Amino acid sequence: MHSDPNGSGTRGPGPAASAAGSGPPVSAGPTGTGTAATDLALARTQLLSGGVRHRRLDAPALRHALVDLHDFWLVTKGAELGIQPDCGFAVVAVGGLGRREMLPCSDLDLVLLHDDMDPAVVSRIADRLWYPLWDAHIKLDHSVRTVPQALQVAASDLTAALGMLEARHIAGDPELSNLLIGGVRRQWRTGIRNRFDELIALTEARWERSGQIAHRAEPDLKSGRGGLRDVQLLNALSVAQLTDGMPGLGPDVPGGGLAAAHRRLLDVRTELHRVAGRPRDQLRAQDADEIGAALRIGDRFDLARVLTEAARTVSYSVEVGVRTAGNALPRKGLSRLRRVPVRRPLDEGVVEHGGEVALARDANPRKDPGLITRVAAAAAQHDLPISASTLGRLADNAPELREPWPRTALNDLLVLLGSGTRAIDPIEALDRTGLWGRLLPEWGAVRDLPPRDAVHIWTVDRHLVETAVQAGGLTTRVARPDLLVLGALLHDIGKGRGGDHSVVGAELATRIGRRMGLWPSDVAVLSAMVRHHLLLPQTATRRDLDDPATVESVVEAIDGDPVLLELLHALAEADSLATGPGVWGDWKAALIRELVRRCRLVMAGEELPHPDPIDPQLAERAEQGGTHVDLQPGENPHAYTVTVVAPDEPGLLSDAAGVLALHGLRVLSASVGSHAGSAVNSFAVAPLFGSPPAAGLLRQELVRARSGDLDLLAALDAKEQAAREAQLPERPERAVPGTYAQAPPHLIWIDAPEQGQAILELRAEDRLGMLCRLADAFERCGADVRWARVATLGRTVVDSFCIDFAGSDTRENRERIERAVLAVVPAPEPKKPEDNG
């Protein structure tokens, strides 16, 4: 029996050789070759059992010793067979030995290269090299080829090409090995444009089969997402000169960066081989404690945390590397004629460039502490990744936010958290690069922390993010959507520290709320949400709801606060949905809903919305008559207050709000009232870019709008349409129209104290010119807005309007107003097919 000179990836003896050509005579060596291979097997056994002098080698030392052992045996055996420089033969290692990552039970992946030698000589050399290894029961993956044959295989077989990129010369003619190694790499670089799509498809198919290491009970360390194959993918892209081999992550980030993550995965897989005694890639639960102890990591939970950290680091690096490589590829066909991507402004100091969120040229992270949250919010809103260079600049230069945070920084965080699933990738990018921990230093205790019960499918930190994602779809059900998403993000922040995580978390939430600049009353509510986030589900599912003491205990625990009760109800649902399949169902939902209903009956009525008092100076200006527009700096460099005092006539509120929106001023809050026949409207605004326009210009535009010379609604529609069309054509599936919403709109009618008036509370997601559109809708319905309180909390608006029906407060009129309002607020985003059922 002979090995096949043209074979690929075969094990054991193969069919007779057939090769053409001849070369210099080569000694086949002695026929008795079993002793040397037996010595190799014994040496392997000694290394695995005790190492030198019965000292157990740690994982890195064991890998190095195995590489040295096999290199020595192959070089010695090659010399015995005459495989030396200038002989026309070379032994090349691929796989683990080629990468110098030999594991205890790894196969030997070898290629015997020859310079078109005589087939009989090739067959004799191959037999005398392979048979001793087979006789010693060493697993062998082998092939025998000329350099042109090997290059042809690499050109036609993507998997073989990836393996040959890791080739390393072992013995024989180094020039022959260099021809193969250099040729494969040149071939890979020149052909990557045509093979990139196939490479990514192959990778995604592997991820689909093997799942994510970070969130799998028994992960596949080699082929799972975030595993060792992904590190090899990055190396392949680096060889193609499309990306840095270690993109975006250095040793200072959480977990120590990509190199450290690679070492940890290798160490765990090394011990897995040693414990299992076979080439196993899937880490079984029953082996985890032993492997954790061998690596001096701890128990299986400690090992799971280390693995999760490493896998998420690798996964993020691959995401960056693949995206960078895709952008670096030469364009095909007509796309080569496309213009160089332009920078599209997204927010102050933030632009879109080449399909990524980047910093504007004049952005200065050192002097703009709110830039981190602004970049993340822009990425979530526009469904774009943050460029690795931008994250690097922010990590190197952005200072920590001082206490209290600027209001705009908090609002950007709320926008991020309220963006649904689009918030996950930006948060993960911030976390892997150390920026998320800069915003929330308390996050370190829960980062990559594995759950303690099987019902949880996510690590604790990812569960917190998923809960915020679920809460984003419930924001219109509560009066304080900002506190809902913050409470969702922090409800389990006390885990990983010992003690009752609800009690510990409440203390941490108080500290975090103060640092973020929340009002003391809001800090108290946020802390209470974290402290009592399990109150409703535990009470509803474990106690008798017909017992009055059950309801009284809940009301007492929350101090009879109806807002807190509403928030805890939504948080209970978001928490359950983010835990795992089957945790939230009709039975649990009905029990909690009934408990909340009974608590509301016990508690006193809620306070009605009411208008803000008018400042005496503004009242005096209103008495003077005329149209006045004033603009003053707000509480931080990116916030301003615009005051409009003008004759109280129909359409004024719509025109004033429309002028602000048209000039890039986002309305964060507003107070609308009247005095002495003049409307007194105050708007807290933040410019989208740069500095706000002068007050004189705003007044001039308002006068134009009042006279009919400026069609604000048409201008706003055109601006919104232009923003949609600015989405890049190469990613239409990610282009989410700006009028779509994460949460459905919610309308609440409240009877006002005055006869013929009613208060309409609207909870909906924001859009460009929302207040202008709402005021216009009221006007078209013939409804007079007597006063209004407007608040934009992240992505959600909570607006209260006191409507005067002129004595005709009927059901028909209310329904007509509802239809007009629902026609202009963002509609819920349609669910994707995979989200159904």
- Please state the CA-atom Rg, rounded to the nearest Å: 34 Å
Helix content: 40-55%
Proportion of residues in β-strands: 5-15%
Largest sheet: 8 strands, antiparallel
Q: How many structural domains? A: 4
Structure annotation, total helices: 30
* Whole-number mean pLDDT: 88
Distance between the termini: 58 Å
Write structural notes for this entry.
The structure is a single chain. The chain is of the alpha+beta class and 837 residues long. It folds into four domains: 34-192, Beta Polymerase, domain 2 (2-Layer Sandwich); 211-330, Four Helix Bundle (Hemerythrin (Met), subunit A) (Up-down Bundle); 440-602, Hypothetical protein af1432; 622-726 and 737-828, no CATH class. 48% of the residues lie in helices and 13% in strands. It has 30 helices and 17 strands. The strands form four sheets. An eight-stranded antiparallel β-sheet has the order 8-9-11-10-15-16-14-13. The protein has a four-stranded mixed β-sheet with strand order 3-2-1-4, with helices on both faces. Strands 5-6-7 form a three-stranded antiparallel β-sheet, covered by helices on one side. A hairpin with a 5-residue loop joins strand 13 (746-751) and strand 14. The longest helix is centred in the first third of the chain and has 37 residues, at 174-210. The chain is elongated, with a radius of gyration of 34 Å. The two termini are 58 Å apart. Mean pLDDT is 88; it is low at 1-32, 728-739 and 833-837.
